[in-house]
Amino acid sequence: FLYNPRGHAFLRIVAVHVTGDTRVLLEDTSPSTFILHTKHYMHFLPCTHELLWTSERSGYHHLYLYNVPASFHDMNELVGLALTSGPYSRVDMAPCIELRRSVDGGLVCVLEQGDYQPLQDQVQWQPPSRFACPGRDGVTLIFGLVVFPIGYDFETRLRNFRDAGFPDRKLWLESLAVKFPSLDLSTGGVGIYGGSAGGQNAVAGLFHHGDMYSVAVADCGCHDNRVDKLWWNELWMGHPFNNQLYAANANATYAHHMQPHQHLQLTVGMLDANVDPACTFQLVQALIDADKDVDVVVFPKLGHGAGGSAYGTRKRWDFFVRHLQGNEPRHSTTKQTGGGGG
């Protein structure tokens, strides 16, 4: 079985004998933490008694082949690269999967070669555009990308791209506005939206960066990491538990920071089995205690991601139209089609 302790500092494959005795077959350590739910892969090959295992111990995400129960199988590595002269992946290039030798980097064969030219020819699709600019220290580069709508006209001025982040992201957004003048930051407000951890960040953007954000919508946010599930929050907040650190990151702590010109909508699914709805309602109470205005949309029959339902999407759009554009949304009807799984 796979053993991942609190703190996520190492991973172990442990064998259990019928007698109850155990022994460690494999251990992988990390100076920081393991992101087990998205970046780790393991697969046992019963015919050869070998184990495929991913690790970033070399500084790169590589695939290793182990003997079971022995150690490394001649340190064989399978390394995937995108294109012969490019990095591992590129958002602005068609996917290319290659098999290369770890000894000398030589190409064994091309496993798959993608082609997005038909998308460009048939629907005028454009690949994302990469960019980079210095962060708050003036040195460290922050990398980002822009995803353009299909058929985007670079000579057309669009006013609906108003997403940004916090200190570093504010700088790259301003840099992006120089590259794409159609991104207008000079008029109106800037809105921010997120769900789950993104909901927590959307509210934090409103509370801590009021000079940029005037409108925020947060769906099923984990607004206090002490209330949300243990494993995910300790992955980022660390272990052992530090209440002062957690309190300093809880949105309710800063409810009094909300400014008169700002507007906030909170959506929550009462059947949320991922993030406890109490996260949202504790924030609502903190805003009430601070005498701040907040719009709350409750979904009694939906779970995590309830704000992504048809009704939740309309409520979010209407909120931004009302408080960013200054217009009352046109009347519309919404047929509830579900959404927001637990």
From TrEMBL:
<dbReference type="InterPro" id="IPR002469">
    <property type="entry name" value="Peptidase_S9B_N"/>
</dbReference>
<dbReference type="InterPro" id="IPR001375">
    <property type="entry name" value="Peptidase_S9_cat"/>
</dbReference>
<dbReference type="InterPro" id="IPR029058">
    <property type="entry name" value="AB_hydrolase_fold"/>
</dbReference>
<protein>
    <recommendedName>
        <fullName>Peptidase S9 prolyl oligopeptidase catalytic domain-containing protein</fullName>
    </recommendedName>
</protein>
<dbReference type="Pfam" id="PF00326">
    <property type="entry name" value="Peptidase_S9"/>
</dbReference>
<dbReference type="Pfam" id="PF00930">
    <property type="entry name" value="DPPIV_N"/>
</dbReference>
<feature type="domain" description="Dipeptidylpeptidase IV N-terminal">
    <location>
        <begin position="6"/>
        <end position="89"/>
    </location>
</feature>
<dbReference type="InterPro" id="IPR050278">
    <property type="entry name" value="Serine_Prot_S9B/DPPIV"/>
</dbReference>
<dbReference type="GO" id="GO:0006508">
    <property type="term" value="P:proteolysis"/>
</dbReference>
<feature type="domain" description="Peptidase S9 prolyl oligopeptidase catalytic">
    <location>
        <begin position="164"/>
        <end position="325"/>
    </location>
</feature>
<dbReference type="GO" id="GO:0008236">
    <property type="term" value="F:serine-type peptidase activity"/>
</dbReference>
